[in-house]
Amino acid sequence: MNNLHELEPLYFRVRGKLARLLGRESLSNPAVAICELIKNSYDADTTEVIVEFENVKLTGGYIRITDNGVGLTLDEIEKIWMTVATDEKEKQPYTEKLKRRKIGEKGVARFATEMLAHRLEIISKPENESYGYKVSINWDEYDKAPQFDKVPNQCWSFHKKKKDHGLELILSPLRESWDESKMGLLFRKIGLLTPPAQARRKGDFRIRIVAPEFPKYSRAVKSTFLQQAVFVMKANLLKDGTNIFSFKTLKGKTVTEKLSKQYRCGPLEFRMFFFYRDKGKYPFEVDIKNLRKTLDGYGGLHLYRDGFKVNLSEEDWAGLDAIRINDPSWYPSNKQVIGIIDITHDANPEIVDTTTREVIIENPAFKDLVRFIHESIEFFVSCRRKVEKKKARKPKRIPPILTPDKLRESFIDFGPAYPEVFYRPLENEINSCYASNLSNAVLLLSRKMAENLLYNLFEHKFPKEPNLRWDIHKNRPHNFSILLDNLADKKGEFSQEEQQLIEKFCMLCKPFKREANSKAHNIMEYVDNRDQLKTLKIPEIIQLALKLIEKSKQ
């Protein structure tokens, strides 16, 4: 190539649709988007965030997020909010007033607004300033623009009192309508965004939802749930490698143990609160229905960095249910514990997230963190064995077979909608079990149906990509969890309408899958009655799967 002639250098050009790629096509659901905006408020030394919903049951309503933080000056709006991939939080990792470790370092929040609504209004009241500022952003204009940085965004100033401060975000009209399930998911995610009251770090940070259309969720997000824990286990990994374990019972009896073992994850604190799911085992009056419901929504191990929850790829990311196979009688399940692992950005620098902050990188430090958790669980099991008396469980009375009239009662009924003839006998068997009040059989057979329908969906939609449904190395179909992950990964290749169905399907499948797996692998856990089945929304899951299969054939 001796005849090379140097030309003018080439530069990357970014099209306007980058906003959509980093918004709607990067974040998994609206609840994640709102949580990112709340994190931004935390970084602004906010003590209270109010999330308001108005007319959101129909597409076109609005969401207002208001905080009482320090606000943004015009210069900060331009250099921080309006600059993509800013390094401001790397240069100033701590907030000025409350010295909080900033957590919004990936810059996801501004594009979270694109996922939620067509337009965004920013109203900023910077602290100790005489002027405030309003910025209007129309995300639809970016979709049409040839270049991302050529779209104008109107800006105004206004007089204000110096003592007024904070930021207000108005998102309207919304791209999607909201229902009880979406609001419930958001409430659970916000509830996990900061630890429950007894586990929270010092420094107030309150989050309140105002949603007149959903009175059940229109309140402050807080919890006193941990006070009911039967056992509390604490495990501290110190900087010098010292491991200090403690186990406390309801009566206040404490067992401690000290070891020395090095881990690459860095110093941390792990607290685990254990609960029974059987009312008869509590020495005090307890609302067992609410307790179970809370554990179903919040149970498991949760990782917090600088006081904020870290997103992880799997609900059972630490493999709690896997090690439980050793002895289900004593090892806790994700439905029996709330575990809180506290790390910091400075003390645990090797535990890092991906760019979108939706998955943590499973490097050696993270694997050591999981190993330390397993060691802590072993200590918990040893202590629990010593303080609990083994009681023989009375055999559960098998309900009588119901009369022929009762056998007509159906749990699911989709008739000819199934993609294959094999589903009709399975449906009949599910309905027979339901009518006979054999709730556990209904749950496990329904899981089998949902998993196979998802397999059929991949067959119809992606016939040339068998790896989406088939494990080539093990020569068998992928399990339910992998099929769900593959569906989420492929969501962008479906139509907009289908994407909404997929989001709903995946959201409903998470608690359903968790419950079915728990009951299948542990003989001591069972569904008490048919009312528990109703909370899992199984008919809705089957219907969504059938809708997706039908649309994939068109």
Explain what you see.
The chain has three domains: 200 residues, 2-Layer Sandwich (Heat Shock Protein 90), CATH 3.30.565.10; 159 residues, Ribosomal Protein S5, domain 2, CATH 3.30.230; 150 residues. It contains 17 helices and 16 strands. The strands form three sheets. It has a seven-stranded mixed sheet. Strands 10-9-8-11-14-12-13 form a seven-stranded mixed sheet, covered by helices on one side. A hairpin with a 2-residue loop joins strand 12 and strand 13. The N and C termini lie far apart (52 Å).
Main attributes of the structure:
554 residues, alpha+beta, Heat Shock Protein 90, Ribosomal Protein S5, domain 2, 3 domains, 17 helices, 16 strands, 35% helix
Mind sketching the topology for me?
Layout: H1 18-22, H2 30-43, E1 48-54, E2 62-67, H3 74-81, H4 88-91, H5 109-116, E3 117-125, E4 131-138, H6 139-144, E5 155-159, E6 166-174, H7 180-193, E7 206-210, E8 231-237, E9 242-249, E10 254-260, E11 268-274, H8 288-298, E12 300-305, E13 308-309, H9 320-323, E14 337-343, H10 364-387, H11 404-407, H12 423-435, H13 439-461, E15 470-471, E16 476-477, H14 480-489, H15 496-521, H16 530-534, H17 538-553
Parallel strand pairs: 1-7, 12-14
Antiparallel strand pairs: 1-2, 2-6, 3-4, 3-6, 4-5, 8-9, 8-11, 9-10, 11-14, 12-13, 15-16
Helix pairs in contact: 2-5, 2-7, 12-13, 13-14, 13-15, 13-17, 14-15, 15-17
